[in-house]
Amino acid sequence: MMVEELRSYSPQDLADLDALMHVLSATSYCDEKLLKSALDDANVHVYVIRDEGRIVASGTLCLKHTLEFAIADIESVVVSPGHRGRGYGKTLMKALLEAARGFQVHHIQLTSNPARVAANRLYQELGFVRYETNCYQLVMGERS
User: Is the pTM of this model over 0.85?
Assistant: First the structure.
């Protein structure tokens, strides 16, 4: 199994990514506008794993630069239900961590729904520590 950074996409890739986002949440999706925007952003890196040419796992590394240091956020890590339990998530996460090291970030942040027990266990196994903080969100508008 090989992890690749997605730099361009086919209609099938877009459909596969949209299906994966629906696995994360019933309200999540990936459309062409969102995918193109992510791939055009120099600070966003989308990584995927394919099985027989189809994307079956994905994760996004987002870089931020502050006055203190560079930070990476790992977002939207998901493995298709039919491919779970085979090490895809661990392989993908290790590739994301290696990419973040290459960008010389100070630290990596991620959030995960507590209901995603296997994912949370994996993050802890990889050295992530649960950080106690207040997390706030302000929704700026509806998605189009």
Answer: yes
